[in-house]
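Query form — protein LysR family transcriptional regulator

QUESTION: What is the three-dimensional structure of this chain?
INPUT:
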Amino acid sequence: MNILHLKMMASVAASGSLQKSALQLHRSQSAISMALKKLEQDAGFALFNRDGYRLQLTPHGQQFLRQAEEVLRQHERLDTLSSRLRTGAEPHLTLCFDHTCDARYWLDAITLVQSEFPATELRFEGESQLRALRRINQAEADLAICPWLPLFRQYGEFETLRISPFQLVVVMHRQLADEHGGIPDNRQQLLGLPMLVPQVLEVGISVESILKLPSQRRIQTSDVATQRDLLLAGLGWGVIPLHMAAPYLASGELVQIEIPGFVHRVNLEVHIIRSAVRSPGPAAEAIWQAFANR
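ANSWER: The structure tokens for LysR family transcriptional regulator are given below.
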């Protein structure tokens, strides 16, 4: 059985006519008729009922066609893969994002790759503690989305594009505030409460040293999702991305801490990042240009 014969069978099954299939496939009716007979000889049973005006599949033919259509789909995917590999398209593409960022930033990029590079397999991975930067630096990922500070350039050769603003806010659970006489209004009162702080980041940066929040009582967390859960459990106060705190601030479950002369909001940016020393493949470059044109 060959692919061309299966294509002919699928065309005849859809049109019910040798003549129509011949026109669609640019073949003679006799060539298509012979292909069907060869398929039936190989299968050992009739594929079509030829008694009526329209060719119709037999019950066996219907089952055979379902499998044949799957073979044709697989063949098309294999053919597309071969074409992309010949022209240098990536067989797979790894996209990372830091868990502090909204993963939905990647949705348009995923749609683009599925449409323009169907043979490229996507690997979509979340990371904590800015590990995405390390993975770009070590060629373990093609593109990453994460918070960005200019000082990160000392940890690798990066090229970046700004995507959106990124804000960190200081918050705590309302119940915890009520248990200690209300929302802290001075530095001493705040630093007397447990602070939920991320561990030293993968690139070797301490969030405490950046934000200069020397709480005497600390609970270190491995990722921002855990930090948020501990905040919602009322186990301390912490600095968290505004977009992750916003629903709970709106409901009143969390409250923002604003102390004059003390950090209460940090304004950063979210960037898409790639290596500045490696050449991107066509799919990675298409994603990059899509972000550049936003």
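ADDITIONAL NOTE: The longest strand covers residues 158-173.
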